[in-house]
Structures
1.
Amino acid sequence: MANLTLKATPRLGGRNHRVGDNRIVERSDIALHAIGFATEEKPAIEGALVEVFGIAWPTSKVATCAGEARALFLSPDQLLLVREGVDLDQRHSLPKFEAVGYPTNQSDVWVVCEVMGPDVLAALERMCAVDLDPAVFSLGSYARTLMMHLSVIIVRHADDGFLLICPSAAAESFWHDIVLSFEWVQP
């Protein structure tokens, strides 16, 4: 029998694209974990967030973050933990959370694209019904919405930068739509 070794690869091959002064990047260094929990375990999950990552409990519209970790409140019994700087081969379980909840590695189910640059708002408003004006959608804000008929989580992580988290099965078409939207707003 052959001795095979599997090697993790980014869904979009680690694409990094420029449109004018804007960048669109597949972020394959981001690990995603859904953490489900029973309602009575919420205090224990809160404690684990603080102990392991130094993160307070997020609100339904604003993520909490510390260092390279960010927590998003998805429902009364589920969080999404977004951790940057994680190597594809080093995504692992979250033992502290396994004792009080149900963490599930979602990194292969979603693809994360980072969009940034001076035209980011103009490009995203063509695709997204959420008001992304910084006065309304400030740093750390996030929303679940539809973009080009796909369920997407959008997170503002910089003044001119957003993370777009979409189902990996639609990664190619979503990438195409993002690039096209940026091309349309170029002078």
2.
Amino acid sequence: VASAPLDAEGLAALRAAIDTLAPVAAVASPDEARRFATSTRAPAFLRAAAQDPHADPVPYRLVPSLDAAWFAAALQQPAFSRLPTVDGVPAEAGVLSQTQADPTVATLLQNDGATVFVRLVARLVALRAGFGQLVALTQSLHDATQINAPAGAPGVGTGVADTARGRLAHQVEIRSGRVAAWRSVAPTEWTFHPEGALRTALLGSSALELHSRTTWLVTALDPCVPCTVEPVERANA
């Protein structure tokens, strides 16, 4: 969180960059999103995703808008940090869950399903929304993680924050003035759950399309670090 409000020059430069990458028209409606994606003004990754033959819809169940109180209880469960679920079912905590209420994203999901293209449009929606949130936070000097941090048991604190990849939660437990436990769950744990979105999406992929499909999906689902797909030779039995 910034320690001072953005100055007018910095704000204008950031707004100009976002307007270039994700203009208002690009997220105004599904038709406008498709029109922008096929124009020369669209980022290369969006143009490619709109034309990719392997960008089929991915079965999905989105994480609802869960607050820190929910995560406070869930993180007390031993396996939750590694294998997070909602009501016992794996779910997706990425950009689709953050933007599912947006009219353009909701309509695209209903009509197209969770394709890579739809996920990238959702990323543009989140980018524009994030700019507005950034302005509000820096001007008011409030820390969003402090706002969403409920009182729990004595010595236990839980906080959540929306990141570019989804909602991140941390929980710390203090005993006798020392950290006794620290638990967390990041968007990656939802995405790479053994029964989660990435695994479900890759099932049934042919060897020919696996490289392209995996690269697209990891980029759309969890753009944390660059990824590569490499063949692995099996040892002789």
